[in-house]
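debug: dumping io for the single-chain case to check the tokenizer round-trip. Nothing else runs in this session.
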Amino acid sequence: MADELRDSLYLVMRVYFEKPRTTVGWQGLVNDPYLDGSCEVEDGLKMARELLTYVAELGLPAAGEALDIVTPQFIQDLFSWTAIGARTTESQSHRNMASGLSSVVGFKNGTDGNIEIAINALESVASGHNFVSIDPDGKVAVIRTTGNSNAHVILRGGKTPNYTEVHMQKYEQRLIEAGFEPRIMVDCSHANSDKKAANQVNVLRDIAAQICKGNQSVMGVMVESNLHHGKQSIPADLRQLKYGVSVTDECIGWEATETALRDFREQVKDALKSR
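debug: decoded output
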């Protein structure tokens, strides 16, 4: 798909290993790779690095979420794009970390839909910071960063969706007022899709229409996709797991992903040439 659509779209593969939880639950491959509560983190890190290496060898860039502030030293060199989630965008520790990441960083708006914390994060990560973490050898060290200006906001909705043309114009103006070039990614999932995976296609169509009308600020979209549609809970008997079905957020299946991306490309390819 990346080769097929490369004239208009640059595909980055979502490879998310850490899952933020509102209360408790499975925290992702790095934290609990065997999905059984054993939390063999060392094994999780090795599996994560092996998979990221495989993706890189395919020639695909990878995208992930930086949730733990230590694990990036073990796998971050294989990420081209990094998200800071809605629950952590306001965290000073995550802003410090992001200021030293060697990748593009996207900050999601807050769970209430507020983008001010994301704008504040852009200002924070553009500056250098000094903080305690670990060095590349895994030893505790004082980390000194030079800042990361390769950052943008991600609209993921709040109590209601926030990707419409009216929202976009308001956010563009707010970014300009704050001294930033309007660079906005739209998360087609979460509140923007009412947490229903199939609705992501509707968000894509709306964004495509905005681009065709002349929008210059949308620099990317995020789609939650897996091999098969839906989601599943992790059963006590892991043999009952359905292969290729998400165990976290609901995803669209691969066939729907192909169709959605091809349709999106057809809608925007001419408009993108004038950017």
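debug: round-trip ok. The two ends are 23 Å apart (CA to CA).
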